Amino acid sequence: xxxxxxxxxxxxxxxxxxxxxxxxxxxxxxxxxxxxxxxxxxxxxxxxxxxxxxxxxxxxxxxxxxxxxxxxxxxxxxxxxxxxxxxxxxxxxxxxxxxxxxxxxxxxxxxxxxxxxxxxxxxxxxxxxxxxxxxxxxxxxxxxxxxxxxxxxxxxxxxxxxxxxxxxxxxxxxxxxxxxxxxxxxxxxxxxxxxxxxxxxxxxxxxxxxxxxxxxxxxxxxxxxxxxxxxxxxxxxxxxxxxxxxxxxxxxxxxxxxxxxxxxxxxxxxxxxxxxxxxxxxxxxxxxxxxxxxxxxxxxxxxxx
Amino acid sequence: xxxxxxxxxxxxxxxxxxxxxxxxxxxxxxxxxxxxxxxxxxxxxxxxxxxxxxxxxxxxxxxxxxxxxxxxxxxxxxxxxxxxxxxxxxxxxxxxxxxxxxxxxxxxxxxxxxxxxxxxxxxx
Lengths: 305, 124
What we know:
The complex is a heterodimer.
Chain A: H1 3-60, E1 76-82, H2 92-109, E2 113-119, H3 121-129, E3 136-138, H4 147-162, E4 172-180, E5 186-194, H5 198-204, E6 216-218, H6 221-304
Parallel strand pairs in A: 1-2, 1-4, 2-3
Antiparallel strand pairs in A: 4-5
Chain B: E1 5-11, E2 14-28, E3 31-35, E4 42-46, E5 49-55, E6 60-73, E7 76-86, H1 92-105, H2 108-122
Parallel strand pairs in B: 1-7
Antiparallel strand pairs in B: 1-2, 2-3, 2-5, 4-6, 5-6, 6-7
Helix pairs in contact in B: 1-2
Protein name (chain B): ATP synthase epsilon chain
Subunit structure (chain B): F-type ATPases have 2 components, CF(1) - the catalytic core - and CF(0) - the membrane proton channel. CF(1) has five subunits: alpha(3), beta(3), gamma(1), delta(1), epsilon(1). CF(0) has three main subunits: a, b and c.
Organism (chain B): Streptomyces misionensis
Protein backbone atom coordinates (compact mmCIF):
# COMPACT_ATOMS: atom_id res chain seq x y z
CA UNK A 1 0.00 0.00 0.00
CA UNK A 2 1.25 3.42 -0.90
CA UNK A 3 1.93 6.07 1.70
CA UNK A 4 -0.88 8.30 0.47
CA UNK A 5 -3.46 5.54 0.69
CA UNK A 6 -2.30 4.56 4.17
CA UNK A 7 -2.77 8.14 5.40
CA UNK A 8 -6.31 8.24 4.06
CA UNK A 9 -7.20 4.89 5.58
CA UNK A 10 -5.92 6.06 8.96
CA UNK A 11 -7.97 9.26 8.83
CA UNK A 12 -11.10 7.38 7.86
CA UNK A 13 -10.63 5.10 10.85
CA UNK A 14 -10.22 7.98 13.28
CA UNK A 15 -13.19 9.90 11.88
CA UNK A 16 -15.45 6.88 12.14
CA UNK A 17 -14.42 6.41 15.77
CA UNK A 18 -15.35 10.05 16.42
CA UNK A 19 -18.62 9.55 14.60
CA UNK A 20 -19.52 6.64 16.85
CA UNK A 21 -18.88 8.77 19.93
CA UNK A 22 -20.88 11.77 18.75
CA UNK A 23 -23.72 9.49 17.68
CA UNK A 24 -23.83 7.99 21.19
CA UNK A 25 -23.76 11.44 22.77
CA UNK A 26 -26.59 12.55 20.51
CA UNK A 27 -28.75 9.66 21.60
CA UNK A 28 -27.98 10.17 25.28
CA UNK A 29 -28.86 13.86 25.01
CA UNK A 30 -32.10 13.03 23.19
CA UNK A 31 -33.25 10.76 25.99
CA UNK A 32 -32.26 13.35 28.59
CA UNK A 33 -34.27 16.08 26.89
CA UNK A 34 -37.39 13.96 27.23
CA UNK A 35 -36.64 13.34 30.90
CA UNK A 36 -35.99 17.02 31.55
CA UNK A 37 -39.19 18.01 29.74
CA UNK A 38 -41.12 15.59 31.90
CA UNK A 39 -39.66 17.23 34.99
CA UNK A 40 -40.71 20.65 33.74
CA UNK A 41 -44.24 19.32 33.25
CA UNK A 42 -44.27 17.72 36.71
CA UNK A 43 -43.33 21.00 38.37
CA UNK A 44 -46.00 22.98 36.55
CA UNK A 45 -48.99 22.34 38.89
CA UNK A 46 -47.05 23.66 41.87
CA UNK A 47 -45.89 26.72 39.95
CA UNK A 48 -49.36 27.60 38.65
CA UNK A 49 -51.02 27.16 42.04
CA UNK A 50 -48.32 29.25 43.66
CA UNK A 51 -48.65 32.00 41.07
CA UNK A 52 -52.39 32.02 41.64
CA UNK A 53 -51.90 32.35 45.37
CA UNK A 54 -49.39 35.19 44.95
CA UNK A 55 -51.80 37.03 42.68
CA UNK A 56 -54.60 36.47 45.15
CA UNK A 57 -52.66 37.97 48.04
CA UNK A 58 -51.20 40.73 45.93
CA UNK A 59 -54.50 41.90 44.53
CA UNK A 60 -56.71 41.01 47.47
CA UNK A 61 -54.87 42.98 50.11
CA UNK A 62 -53.01 46.25 50.41
CA UNK A 63 -50.04 44.62 52.01
CA UNK A 64 -46.65 46.15 51.35
CA UNK A 65 -43.71 43.85 51.29
CA UNK A 66 -40.02 44.47 50.54
CA UNK A 67 -40.20 41.90 47.77
CA UNK A 68 -43.01 43.68 45.93
CA UNK A 69 -42.17 47.35 46.44
CA UNK A 70 -39.84 49.12 44.06
CA UNK A 71 -36.94 50.93 45.65
CA UNK A 72 -37.10 54.67 45.03
CA UNK A 73 -33.75 54.78 43.41
CA UNK A 74 -32.28 51.34 42.95
CA UNK A 75 -28.50 51.32 43.20
CA UNK A 76 -27.65 47.66 43.14
CA UNK A 77 -29.01 44.71 41.20
CA UNK A 78 -28.26 41.01 41.30
CA UNK A 79 -28.08 38.87 38.19
CA UNK A 80 -28.53 35.16 38.40
CA UNK A 81 -27.00 33.53 35.34
CA UNK A 82 -27.83 29.91 34.55
CA UNK A 83 -25.29 28.05 32.44
CA UNK A 84 -24.31 24.40 32.27
CA UNK A 85 -21.43 22.49 33.81
CA UNK A 86 -20.39 20.88 30.58
CA UNK A 87 -19.88 22.21 27.10
CA UNK A 88 -20.39 20.41 23.78
CA UNK A 89 -23.70 22.19 23.46
CA UNK A 90 -23.13 24.55 20.57
CA UNK A 91 -23.83 28.17 21.39
CA UNK A 92 -25.93 27.35 24.46
CA UNK A 93 -23.58 28.76 27.08
CA UNK A 94 -22.23 31.64 25.03
CA UNK A 95 -25.77 32.79 24.26
CA UNK A 96 -26.72 32.80 27.93
CA UNK A 97 -23.51 34.59 28.86
CA UNK A 98 -24.03 37.11 26.09
CA UNK A 99 -27.55 37.83 27.34
CA UNK A 100 -26.15 38.34 30.83
CA UNK A 101 -23.48 40.71 29.51
CA UNK A 102 -26.08 42.78 27.70
CA UNK A 103 -28.24 42.95 30.78
CA UNK A 104 -25.26 43.95 32.92
CA UNK A 105 -24.41 46.71 30.49
CA UNK A 106 -27.97 47.99 30.48
CA UNK A 107 -28.20 48.00 34.27
CA UNK A 108 -24.87 49.75 34.58
CA UNK A 109 -26.03 52.41 32.15
CA UNK A 110 -28.99 52.94 34.45
CA UNK A 111 -26.48 53.59 37.20
CA UNK A 112 -26.83 50.33 39.08
CA UNK A 113 -24.07 48.26 40.47
CA UNK A 114 -24.33 44.64 39.39
CA UNK A 115 -23.66 41.56 41.51
CA UNK A 116 -23.26 38.33 39.58
CA UNK A 117 -24.58 35.03 40.90
CA UNK A 118 -23.72 32.12 38.65
CA UNK A 119 -24.89 28.55 38.25
CA UNK A 120 -22.81 26.18 36.12
CA UNK A 121 -19.11 25.69 35.62
CA UNK A 122 -19.09 27.28 32.16
CA UNK A 123 -20.37 30.61 33.41
CA UNK A 124 -18.04 30.55 36.40
CA UNK A 125 -15.07 29.84 34.12
CA UNK A 126 -16.06 32.73 31.85
CA UNK A 127 -16.19 35.18 34.74
CA UNK A 128 -13.05 33.89 36.43
CA UNK A 129 -11.07 34.08 33.22
CA UNK A 130 -11.96 37.75 32.94
CA UNK A 131 -11.23 38.20 36.63
CA UNK A 132 -14.66 39.58 37.33
CA UNK A 133 -16.18 39.43 40.74
CA UNK A 134 -18.72 36.70 41.33
CA UNK A 135 -20.90 37.13 44.40
CA UNK A 136 -21.71 33.45 44.64
CA UNK A 137 -21.66 30.42 42.38
CA UNK A 138 -22.98 26.88 42.32
CA UNK A 139 -21.92 23.93 40.20
CA UNK A 140 -22.58 20.23 39.91
CA UNK A 141 -26.33 19.93 39.44
CA UNK A 142 -27.12 21.62 36.13
CA UNK A 143 -27.88 18.39 34.28
CA UNK A 144 -30.58 17.29 36.67
CA UNK A 145 -31.52 20.03 39.11
CA UNK A 146 -33.68 19.12 42.11
CA UNK A 147 -35.90 21.38 44.15
CA UNK A 148 -33.34 21.32 46.96
CA UNK A 149 -30.80 22.79 44.54
CA UNK A 150 -33.21 25.59 43.66
CA UNK A 151 -33.65 26.32 47.36
CA UNK A 152 -29.90 26.43 47.81
CA UNK A 153 -29.58 28.95 44.98
CA UNK A 154 -32.53 31.04 46.12
CA UNK A 155 -31.51 31.38 49.79
CA UNK A 156 -28.63 33.88 49.43
CA UNK A 157 -30.55 35.81 46.78
CA UNK A 158 -33.57 36.29 49.02
CA UNK A 159 -31.28 37.22 51.86
CA UNK A 160 -29.54 39.80 49.67
CA UNK A 161 -32.78 41.40 48.59
CA UNK A 162 -34.12 41.62 52.11
CA UNK A 163 -30.98 43.37 53.31
CA UNK A 164 -30.67 47.14 53.11
CA UNK A 165 -28.78 48.33 50.06
CA UNK A 166 -26.38 50.27 52.29
CA UNK A 167 -25.36 47.04 54.02
CA UNK A 168 -24.63 45.22 50.79
CA UNK A 169 -28.12 44.16 49.88
CA UNK A 170 -29.62 44.45 46.40
CA UNK A 171 -32.72 46.24 45.13
CA UNK A 172 -33.48 44.11 42.13
CA UNK A 173 -33.06 40.53 41.10
CA UNK A 174 -32.77 39.53 37.47
CA UNK A 175 -32.48 36.04 36.12
CA UNK A 176 -30.87 35.02 32.84
CA UNK A 177 -31.71 31.56 31.56
CA UNK A 178 -32.41 29.66 28.39
CA UNK A 179 -36.06 29.13 27.70
CA UNK A 180 -37.02 25.80 26.22
CA UNK A 181 -39.39 26.70 23.39
CA UNK A 182 -39.17 23.48 21.43
CA UNK A 183 -36.72 20.76 20.48
CA UNK A 184 -35.30 23.07 17.81
CA UNK A 185 -35.62 26.46 19.46
CA UNK A 186 -34.18 27.60 22.75
CA UNK A 187 -33.78 31.27 23.51
CA UNK A 188 -31.62 32.91 26.12
CA UNK A 189 -33.63 35.58 27.90
CA UNK A 190 -33.54 37.76 30.96
CA UNK A 191 -36.42 38.43 33.30
CA UNK A 192 -36.83 40.57 36.36
CA UNK A 193 -37.82 38.36 39.25
CA UNK A 194 -37.95 40.93 42.03
CA UNK A 195 -39.42 43.30 42.92
CA UNK A 196 -42.48 41.55 41.71
CA UNK A 197 -44.74 43.23 39.21
CA UNK A 198 -48.08 41.88 40.28
CA UNK A 199 -49.77 42.89 37.03
CA UNK A 200 -47.35 40.66 35.12
CA UNK A 201 -47.90 37.78 37.48
CA UNK A 202 -51.63 38.22 37.06
CA UNK A 203 -51.26 38.10 33.29
CA UNK A 204 -49.29 34.91 33.52
CA UNK A 205 -52.18 33.17 35.20
CA UNK A 206 -53.88 33.70 31.82
CA UNK A 207 -57.44 33.70 33.19
CA UNK A 208 -58.26 37.34 32.60
CA UNK A 209 -62.01 37.02 32.91
CA UNK A 210 -61.71 35.22 36.21
CA UNK A 211 -62.30 37.33 39.27
CA UNK A 212 -60.32 36.18 42.24
CA UNK A 213 -62.38 35.67 45.37
CA UNK A 214 -61.77 37.59 48.56
CA UNK A 215 -59.61 35.29 50.57
CA UNK A 216 -59.54 34.82 54.27
CA UNK A 217 -55.91 34.89 55.32
CA UNK A 218 -54.63 32.53 57.92
CA UNK A 219 -52.92 33.83 60.09
CA UNK A 220 -52.75 37.23 58.31
CA UNK A 221 -52.14 38.64 54.84
CA UNK A 222 -48.67 39.87 55.82
CA UNK A 223 -47.63 36.50 57.18
CA UNK A 224 -48.97 34.66 54.18
CA UNK A 225 -47.14 36.99 51.81
CA UNK A 226 -44.01 36.66 53.92
CA UNK A 227 -44.09 32.91 53.55
CA UNK A 228 -45.36 32.92 49.98
CA UNK A 229 -42.87 35.17 48.21
CA UNK A 230 -39.67 33.27 49.00
CA UNK A 231 -41.42 30.08 47.84
CA UNK A 232 -42.48 31.87 44.69
CA UNK A 233 -38.90 32.91 43.99
CA UNK A 234 -37.69 29.37 44.65
CA UNK A 235 -40.27 27.92 42.34
CA UNK A 236 -39.39 30.38 39.58
CA UNK A 237 -35.70 29.57 39.97
CA UNK A 238 -36.51 25.84 39.96
CA UNK A 239 -38.48 26.26 36.78
CA UNK A 240 -35.66 28.24 35.18
CA UNK A 241 -33.14 25.58 36.20
CA UNK A 242 -35.26 22.84 34.67
CA UNK A 243 -35.81 24.75 31.45
CA UNK A 244 -32.11 25.50 31.26
CA UNK A 245 -31.31 21.82 31.70
CA UNK A 246 -33.79 20.81 29.01
CA UNK A 247 -32.40 23.48 26.67
CA UNK A 248 -28.87 22.35 27.31
CA UNK A 249 -29.68 18.77 26.43
CA UNK A 250 -31.53 19.87 23.31
CA UNK A 251 -28.56 22.04 22.29
CA UNK A 252 -26.19 19.13 22.92
CA UNK A 253 -28.35 16.86 20.84
CA UNK A 254 -28.33 19.30 17.95
CA UNK A 255 -24.60 19.95 18.18
CA UNK A 256 -23.86 16.24 18.29
CA UNK A 257 -26.20 15.56 15.39
CA UNK A 258 -24.40 18.02 13.17
CA UNK A 259 -21.05 16.60 14.35
CA UNK A 260 -22.23 13.13 13.36
CA UNK A 261 -23.45 14.40 9.98
CA UNK A 262 -20.16 16.18 9.39
CA UNK A 263 -18.21 13.07 10.30
CA UNK A 264 -20.28 11.06 7.80
CA UNK A 265 -19.59 13.59 5.09
CA UNK A 266 -15.91 13.60 5.91
CA UNK A 267 -15.78 9.82 5.70
CA UNK A 268 -17.40 9.97 2.25
CA UNK A 269 -14.92 12.53 0.97
CA UNK A 270 -11.98 10.65 2.43
CA UNK A 271 -13.07 7.34 0.92
CA UNK A 272 -13.35 9.00 -2.49
CA UNK A 273 -9.85 10.40 -2.08
CA UNK A 274 -8.60 7.01 -0.93
CA UNK A 275 -10.16 5.36 -3.99
CA UNK A 276 -8.56 7.91 -6.27
CA UNK A 277 -5.22 7.35 -4.57
CA UNK A 278 -5.57 3.58 -5.04
CA UNK A 279 -6.44 4.06 -8.70
CA UNK A 280 -3.48 6.37 -9.19
CA UNK A 281 -1.25 3.83 -7.53
CA UNK A 282 -2.46 1.03 -9.83
CA UNK A 283 -2.11 3.25 -12.90
CA UNK A 284 1.39 4.12 -11.88
CA UNK A 285 2.31 0.49 -11.31
CA UNK A 286 0.97 -0.48 -14.75
CA UNK A 287 2.82 2.31 -16.49
CA UNK A 288 5.98 1.32 -14.62
CA UNK A 289 5.59 -2.27 -15.80
CA UNK A 290 4.85 -1.20 -19.37
CA UNK A 291 7.76 1.22 -19.31
CA UNK A 292 10.07 -1.45 -17.91
CA UNK A 293 8.96 -4.03 -20.50
CA UNK A 294 9.45 -1.70 -23.45
CA UNK A 295 12.86 -0.66 -22.13
CA UNK A 296 13.76 -4.34 -21.91
CA UNK A 297 12.43 -4.96 -25.43
CA UNK A 298 14.45 -2.04 -26.75
CA UNK A 299 17.57 -3.40 -25.07
CA UNK A 300 17.20 -6.91 -26.54
CA UNK A 301 16.39 -5.49 -29.95
CA UNK A 302 19.67 -3.55 -29.74
CA UNK A 303 21.78 -6.60 -28.84
CA UNK A 304 20.37 -8.57 -31.78
CA UNK A 305 21.86 -6.18 -34.25
CA UNK B 1 -75.49 14.10 46.47
CA UNK B 2 -73.18 14.87 49.31
CA UNK B 3 -71.27 18.08 48.86
CA UNK B 4 -67.74 17.55 47.63
CA UNK B 5 -64.64 19.59 47.20
CA UNK B 6 -61.86 18.98 44.77
CA UNK B 7 -58.45 18.52 46.34
CA UNK B 8 -55.06 18.89 44.69
CA UNK B 9 -52.06 17.98 46.77
CA UNK B 10 -48.96 19.09 44.91
CA UNK B 11 -45.32 18.99 45.87
CA UNK B 12 -42.71 21.19 44.21
CA UNK B 13 -41.67 18.52 41.74
CA UNK B 14 -44.80 16.41 41.25
CA UNK B 15 -48.50 16.07 41.83
CA UNK B 16 -48.98 13.85 44.85
CA UNK B 17 -52.72 13.31 45.04
CA UNK B 18 -55.85 14.71 43.53
CA UNK B 19 -59.48 13.78 43.90
CA UNK B 20 -62.80 14.54 45.55
CA UNK B 21 -63.15 14.84 49.30
CA UNK B 22 -65.68 15.79 51.94
CA UNK B 23 -63.30 17.07 54.59
CA UNK B 24 -59.68 18.12 54.71
CA UNK B 25 -57.86 18.76 57.95
CA UNK B 26 -54.52 20.54 57.84
CA UNK B 27 -52.32 22.30 60.32
CA UNK B 28 -51.72 25.99 59.73
CA UNK B 29 -49.39 28.18 61.75
CA UNK B 30 -52.34 29.27 63.87
CA UNK B 31 -53.73 25.82 64.52
CA UNK B 32 -55.54 22.93 62.86
CA UNK B 33 -58.11 23.89 60.30
CA UNK B 34 -60.82 21.73 58.80
CA UNK B 35 -62.18 22.62 55.38
CA UNK B 36 -65.52 21.31 54.20
CA UNK B 37 -67.33 22.06 50.95
CA UNK B 38 -68.59 25.62 50.76
CA UNK B 39 -65.94 27.03 53.06
CA UNK B 40 -65.07 30.69 52.73
CA UNK B 41 -62.12 31.37 50.39
CA UNK B 42 -59.03 30.77 52.43
CA UNK B 43 -55.29 31.14 52.06
CA UNK B 44 -53.13 29.87 54.87
CA UNK B 45 -49.58 28.94 55.73
CA UNK B 46 -49.08 25.28 56.63
CA UNK B 47 -46.95 23.92 59.41
CA UNK B 48 -45.15 20.63 58.96
CA UNK B 49 -47.64 18.02 59.97
CA UNK B 50 -49.96 15.35 58.75
CA UNK B 51 -52.80 16.35 56.45
CA UNK B 52 -55.93 14.21 56.59
CA UNK B 53 -58.24 14.02 53.60
CA UNK B 54 -61.61 12.25 53.91
CA UNK B 55 -62.39 11.17 50.39
CA UNK B 56 -65.95 11.16 49.12
CA UNK B 57 -66.01 7.36 48.91
CA UNK B 58 -65.45 7.11 52.65
CA UNK B 59 -61.72 6.44 52.63
CA UNK B 60 -59.00 8.43 54.29
CA UNK B 61 -55.80 9.72 52.77
CA UNK B 62 -53.07 10.88 55.08
CA UNK B 63 -50.01 12.73 53.87
CA UNK B 64 -46.97 14.15 55.61
CA UNK B 65 -46.50 17.73 54.51
CA UNK B 66 -43.40 19.78 55.24
CA UNK B 67 -44.21 23.46 54.98
CA UNK B 68 -46.36 25.03 52.32
CA UNK B 69 -49.75 26.60 51.77
CA UNK B 70 -53.36 25.78 51.66
CA UNK B 71 -55.69 27.71 49.42
CA UNK B 72 -59.39 27.20 48.98
CA UNK B 73 -61.77 28.87 46.53
CA UNK B 74 -64.74 27.78 44.42
CA UNK B 75 -64.85 24.40 46.14
CA UNK B 76 -61.30 23.73 45.00
CA UNK B 77 -58.67 23.15 47.61
CA UNK B 78 -54.97 23.25 46.77
CA UNK B 79 -52.37 22.04 49.17
CA UNK B 80 -48.95 23.26 48.07
CA UNK B 81 -45.99 21.74 49.79
CA UNK B 82 -42.30 21.73 49.09
CA UNK B 83 -42.22 18.13 50.15
CA UNK B 84 -45.30 15.93 50.53
CA UNK B 85 -45.56 12.19 50.94
CA UNK B 86 -48.59 9.98 51.15
CA UNK B 87 -48.68 7.79 54.25
CA UNK B 88 -48.36 4.57 52.22
CA UNK B 89 -45.24 5.90 50.53
CA UNK B 90 -43.53 6.23 53.87
CA UNK B 91 -41.23 3.47 54.98
CA UNK B 92 -41.90 3.27 58.73
CA UNK B 93 -38.77 1.37 59.67
CA UNK B 94 -36.51 3.68 57.75
CA UNK B 95 -38.18 6.71 59.23
CA UNK B 96 -37.76 5.30 62.73
CA UNK B 97 -34.07 4.86 62.07
CA UNK B 98 -33.91 8.41 60.76
CA UNK B 99 -35.67 9.66 63.88
CA UNK B 100 -33.17 7.91 66.11
CA UNK B 101 -30.26 9.22 64.14
CA UNK B 102 -31.65 12.75 64.21
CA UNK B 103 -32.11 12.51 67.96
CA UNK B 104 -28.59 11.23 68.44
CA UNK B 105 -27.15 13.99 66.30
CA UNK B 106 -29.37 16.64 67.83
CA UNK B 107 -30.64 17.70 64.41
CA UNK B 108 -33.93 19.33 65.36
CA UNK B 109 -35.18 19.88 61.80
CA UNK B 110 -34.54 16.30 60.74
CA UNK B 111 -36.12 15.05 63.96
CA UNK B 112 -39.27 17.05 63.29
CA UNK B 113 -39.45 15.84 59.70
CA UNK B 114 -39.09 12.21 60.74
CA UNK B 115 -41.65 12.70 63.50
CA UNK B 116 -44.20 14.17 61.09
CA UNK B 117 -43.65 11.27 58.71
CA UNK B 118 -44.12 8.72 61.45
CA UNK B 119 -47.30 10.35 62.69
CA UNK B 120 -48.69 10.42 59.17
CA UNK B 121 -47.76 6.78 58.60
CA UNK B 122 -49.37 5.58 61.82
CA UNK B 123 -52.53 7.69 61.38
CA UNK B 124 -53.60 5.66 58.37
